[in-house]
Amino acid sequence: MRKKTRIAVLASGRGSNFEALSSACLEGGYPASIEILIADNSQAGAIAAAAARNIPSVTVDCGPKRGTMSDEASDRMARLCRERGIDLVCLAGFMRIVRGALLDAYAGKMLNIHPALLPSFKGLDGQHQALEYGVRYSGCTVHFVDKGVDTGPIIIQRVVPVRQDDTVESLSARILAEEHRAYPEAVRLYAERRLRIEGRRVIIDEET
Ligand code: GRF
Question: Is pLDDT above 90 for 208?
Fold first, then answer.
């Protein structure tokens, strides 16, 4: 049997995607395990969720500049991942653009989940942007992380209808339920080595 893919999850907030991933990892036969949670602030709800599951967590001060990380923080996170033999980094509501040593070390081995159908509505508040724009469908996207913001090759998208009476909250809740399915599914495909990147496209190989 192939060794399980060792995951580091990076989160800033609530942590529901962290929970969805960690629940999947507890299922028999799931090919991945979460070895560490890295948060950029000590208030992140994901930290309590990790503690409840006996998953170690570390808070890394990413510096004062919102939305990005200092070189020192990137170096430290890369070191933490290396020390734990991390194969895959999953961003789950991590509110900073990953750059530097961490991105270099995990190019092609880092995933993100975004609450919109990319390439529409990149960046912050994807649900709000979709509602304001008036689209009839939105959803979520799991993609590889590259140097841009929400621009990497797309692995999985799940679609939800936008209702006439939707608020940002109701639409976000409908999208979030799909996020919790899509992320574990994408991680499974990655861990089963079934994803190949060809240019912008991700080819999903058949199960063997
Ligand atoms: C999710 O909507 C995710 O798509 C976005 O940030 C939110 C994080 O939620 N990147 P949670 O912390 O996983 O509950």
Answer: no
